[in-house]
Design brief:
Layout: H1 5-25, H2 29-53, H3 58-87, H4 98-104, H5 109-123, E1 130-132, H6 136-155, H7 160-176, E2 180-182, H8 195-211, H9 214-233
Antiparallel strand pairs: 1-2
Helix pairs in contact: 1-2, 1-3, 2-3, 2-6, 3-5, 3-6, 5-7, 6-7, 6-9, 8-9
């Protein structure tokens, strides 16, 4: 019986991603973000439960990647797609032109790059204590919290849709970039050797207090900056 527990938790992650995607297509970005967060919680506990119960399996690894593709790849892409669709100029409350509508589908490139990122992670033995490229949960939380938190402000910017599309391509690059990014894993609890991790953790709460939901997006951006800085200070051999 216990061997099914991790896979059941993984399936809960996948279902959360499906619900998040539905909410995104309905334009309910707040609930979409909530279910991405719920999916992230399930994603954390499925691996932990597999290790604690000693029931890790190849099928669990594949199922986990599939669930992550939905929750952290397809769901945030659906959020961006719906958001872009609402940004294109219309006349007399009509729908955007066919060309502009088709451009909204560029959001799903992020889902493809998320799948590629997950496939690389499964095969890359360098990522036991850190990541190479932006983790898909971080990318999903960035986009969902950004649109929930400051989506109304973004919509007022000149050429907002094109800025979002440009940011999507940056995200796609970060997902597969050969940039080492730290994980919150500690070999020791001392300050030495963990400076960047502790600085990151200490700044998360002020960012959330000051910026609210959009603070999550700021935290992810700060994580990328700190990772690049940390890599510059202590280059990782590939």
């Amino acid at each position: 019986m216990k061997k099914h527990i991790p896979n059941t938790i993984t399936c809960c992650n996948l279902i959360s991603g499906c619900i998040a995607t539905y909410m995104a297509f309905q334009g309910n970005y707040g609930l979409a973000l909530l279910f991405i967060v719920i999916g992230a919680v399930f994603d954390f506990f499925d691996g932990m439960s597999a290790r604690l119960l000693g029931v890790s399996s190849p099928i669990g690894k594949e199922l986990d990647s599939l669930a992550d593709c939905i929750t952290f790849g397809f769901a945030p892409s659906a959020i961006v797609f719906s958001f872009l669709n609402a940004l294109w100029p219309t006349e007399a409350n009509a729908s955007p032109s066919a060309v502009l509508f088709c451009l909204s589908f560029l959001a799903f490139i992020m889902a493809a790059f998320s799948a590629l990122r997950l496939a690389k992670f499964n095969l890359d033995e360098r990522q036991s204590m850190g990541f190479i490229g932006l983790p898909t949960p971080a990318n999903a939380l960035f986009w969902a919290s950004l649109i929930v938190g400051v989506g109304d402000y973004i919509a007022t910017l000149p050429h907002a849709a094109w800025l979002v599309i440009a940011a999507v391509f940056v995200s796609c690059w970060l997902l597969i970039a050969e940039i080492p990014m730290f994980a919150l894993k500690f070999k020791t609890w001392g300050w030495k050797g963990n400076e960047v991790k502790y600085i990151f953790l200490l700044t998360c709460i002020p960012l959330l207090i000051l910026l609210g939901i959009s603070g999550l997006a700021a935290i992810i951006a700060w994580y990328v900056v700190l990772s690049i800085y940390n890599n510059y200070q202590t280059p990782v051999k590939h």
